[in-house]
């Protein structure tokens, strides 16, 4: 709340608090799609066409139809309630752009590590990144059509993720599914803060 003077009257204005969440993961797992699906504004995207020059670097196995890639960040916003606005920062997925992850993570309360069951190994780097920095994160399994389905326990074991890290299934194209993932990140981050304070 902020107090302002207006024509001799004092009025209270509600100024929303802002929260930052990072959406990370390997190349082609659906980060840009997730930010776009849930953002209430037209998301800022820094996508470029994949070129022949990157063929030796970018592994398109499992995402052969992909023709663009994020080179800096994706940015979106969602108003949770009148008191809380959530800002989303999607990271680039290729290893050569990971130097940006530290900058994008500054000030975040938590992260979504988005993984694809067709290429689970692409999620290891993101999981390691947030574990090493002590940033609370949720693993969100993007359920692509035609991909093999696994149980949560199988996924947790394959990704070597601790039981204390939430693991959820989602559809990065679906707004409600994405909102549910973000709510889980906020809940997980708040629980971590409570545990540290207690």
Report on this model:
The mean pLDDT is 80. A seven-stranded mixed beta sheet has the order 4-5-6-3-7-8-9, sandwiched between helices. Strands 1-2 form a two-stranded antiparallel ribbon. The longest helix is centred in the last third of the chain and has 23 residues, at 175-197. The two termini are 27 Å apart. The protein is of the alpha/beta class and 198 residues long. It contains five helices and nine strands. The protein has helices at 31-38, 99-105, 124-133, 152-159, 175-197; strands spanning 2-6, 9-13, 17-25, 44-49, 68-81, 84-90, 110-116, 137-142, 167-170.
Topology summary:
Blueprint: E1 2-6, E2 9-13, E3 17-25, H1 31-38, E4 44-49, E5 68-81, E6 84-90, H2 99-105, E7 110-116, H3 124-133, E8 137-142, H4 152-159, E9 167-170, H5 175-197
Parallel strand pairs: 3-6, 3-7, 7-8, 8-9
Antiparallel strand pairs: 1-2, 4-5, 5-6
Helix pairs in contact: 1-5
- Average of pLDDT: 80
Question: What class, by secondary structure content?
Answer: alpha/beta
Overall shape: globular
- Helix content estimate: 25-40%
Strand order of the largest sheet: 4-5-6-3-7-8-9
Written as H for each helix and E for each strand, in order along the chain, the element string is EEEHEEEHEHEHEH
Gap from first CA to last CA: 27 Å
């Amino acid at each position: 709340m902020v107090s302002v003077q207006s024509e001799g009257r004092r009025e209270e204005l509600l100024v929303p608090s802002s929260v930052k969440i990072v959406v990370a993961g390997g190349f082609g797992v659906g980060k840009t799609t997730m930010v776009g699906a849930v953002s209430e504004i037209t998301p800022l995207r820094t996508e470029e066409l994949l070129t022949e020059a990157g063929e030796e670097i970018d592994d398109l196995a499992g995402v052969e139809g992909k023709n663009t890639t994020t080179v800096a960040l994706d940015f979106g916003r969602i108003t949770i309630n009148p008191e809380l606005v959530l800002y989303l920062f999607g990271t680039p997925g290729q290893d050569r752009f990971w130097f940006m992850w530290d900058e994008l993570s500054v000030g975040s309360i938590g992260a979504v590590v988005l993984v694809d069951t067709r290429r689970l190994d692409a999620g290891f780097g993101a999981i390691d990144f947030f574990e090493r920095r002590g940033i609370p994160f949720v693993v969100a399994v993007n359920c692509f059509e035609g991909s093999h389905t696994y149980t949560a326990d199988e996924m947790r074991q394959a990704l070597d993720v601790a039981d204390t890290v939430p693991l959820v299934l989602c559809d990065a194209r679906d707004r409600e599914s994405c909102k549910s993932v973000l709510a889980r990140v906020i809940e997980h981050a708040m629980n971590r803060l409570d545990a540290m304070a207690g």
